[in-house]
Amino acid sequence: MQNLADLEAGTRIAVGCSGGADSLALVRAAVHVGRERSMSVAALVIDHQLQEGSAGVAQRAAQVARDLGADPVIVEAVDVAHGPGSGGLEAAARDARRKVFEQYARTHGVAAVLLGHTLEDQAETVLLGLARGSGARSLSGMRAVDGLYRRPFLGLSRELVRGTVSDLAAYEDPHNINPQFARVRVRHELLPALESELGPGITQALARTADMLRADADALDDLADAVMTSEKTDVDDLLLLSSAVRTRVLRRLAAQAGCTVNHLTREHIMSIDALLTNWHGQGPINLPGNVDVQRRHGRLNFYKT
Q: Where in the chain is the domain with CATH 3.40.50.620?
């Protein structure tokens, strides 16, 4: 797997394993690479407790991972059903998984946690971002290497990946076929319809779009970071920036003041921007996390309330 090439022999890695075909394929591939390069490969199985019998499903997934050669194999139960929060059940489950992964990595010196996302997962992410009216960062999809997390299969089709484990009894999560979830509708209805109406290659085109937008978003983020480093945050300096860079700076200033970034919407940012571009003496803007921002004496002042 190419995106593990920078890891040295003897490195410890872990695979997030649901028992589904994609994650089992990843365990098999990781164990193969691990044996070639003397790397320790653990499997982390998360029981989200979202359906009856989930503990048994998790144990069966763990056993398959052991049979494939992962060692150790850890099963961890998390509770997300009673507190999905504003991001919904899918986001709560992802956050719970990541807490387990990151805690295990810290405790056991794991250099990378591998996730089994495929080319289709990337295309689905881009379409969901388009539907929500998201910006370039959201539309840039998932990174193959993202800090602790790595996605070796991100450039491979789901069909190809699953073909490598046709001999295994993979688990199909009922949530992956439940049309209640937007991602399921995109997977089973929207993407096939686009392929049918516009011709083959839509999935690859969406993934290419994500790659190009990610490069653009990274460049704009670098410019915003440079402005933050120079601390030129008075009104006149901010107005010299392009809108794309300025709004990124405003988001960083809000976060720096203690704003809860996950709840900071585009509407919040545009209201702050209006203090610069449409100033008519308006009062403070209230932001998530008990942060206010006010224009005063030619500067934007962010402060806790």
A: 2-118+142-179
CATH 3.30.465.60 domain position(s) in the chain? 231-304
pLDDT score recorded for residue 82: 62
* Location of structure tokens 């484990």: 165
Closest among 257, 249, 256, 253 to 220, alpha carbons compared: 249
d(CA 58, CA 48): 9
Predicted pLDDT of residue 231: 66
- pTM (predicted TM-score): 0.87
Long-range contact list for 197-201, CB < 8 A, 24+ apart?
none
End-to-end CA distance of the chain: 50
Run of H or E including 285: strand 285-287
pLDDT-derived band at 88, boundaries 50, 70, 90: confident
**Could you tell me what percent of the chain has a pLDDT over 70?**
97
> 231-304 has which fold?
3.30.465
Chain-centroid distance, C-alpha 189:
23
Superfamily of domain 2-118+142-179: HUPs (3.40.50.620)
Q: Which residue has the higher pLDDT, 263 or 29?
A: 29
